Amino acid sequence: MKKKKRSFCIIGLGRFGQTLAINLARTNHQVLVIDSDDNIVNAMSDIVTNAVVGDPTNEAVLRAAGVRDYDCAIIATADNINDSILVTLTLKEMGIAQVVVRASSDQHRRVLEKIGADMVVFPEQDMGEKLVGILDRNNVLEYIEFSDRHSIVEVAVPDKWVGKSLAELDVRKQYGVTVLAVSDPVSGMNISPDPTRPFTSEDTVALLGENTAIDKITK
Prior knowledge:
By secondary structure, this protein is an alpha/beta fold. 36% of the residues lie in helices and 26% in strands. The chain contains 9 helices and 11 strands. Strand 5, helix 5 and strand 6 form a beta-alpha-beta unit. The longest helix has 13 residues. The model has no long low-confidence stretch (mean pLDDT 86).
């Protein structure tokens, strides 16, 4: 059975909000955007499902836009903390299943969590931490912090692995990490790689493990 696409309402069309809306629309999600700037809203109208010009702090605007019909509402701007808090409260009182809010500080985050925000995000901080994870390690192409101690990284195959297979390397025993997938330029990503196939210098691998073990491979 095909999984049903989720629907999203994005409130605030700064750079972050526009990027979210465009990418969600590209993946065929139903997307409603709301902003008080008619120029920005008009520019987005051909990209998203619905685009509404209006003040999102006005509950009547939210109701008229049909916000209650959407699975998730994202308050994508944190420029005005009072407005952010007011819209969050209104959305929760309207019964929106999931409300995601962008915060500008830890204090802002704590307030948003206390009034019922389901998820609070810091895009700049999160991206900064991710970038540090990439820059701090050699040849790392992608980095995801899995927990305080564990990460998932996509990394170019280390030089000393080239010409050897997974079976020969016995990666889990020798390095304490798990190979989740192997990618090569011809076949793309393979989550069940052939353990006897030798690595080439063009391959990349997705690894899961403790940060200390990953650091021994990537630093």
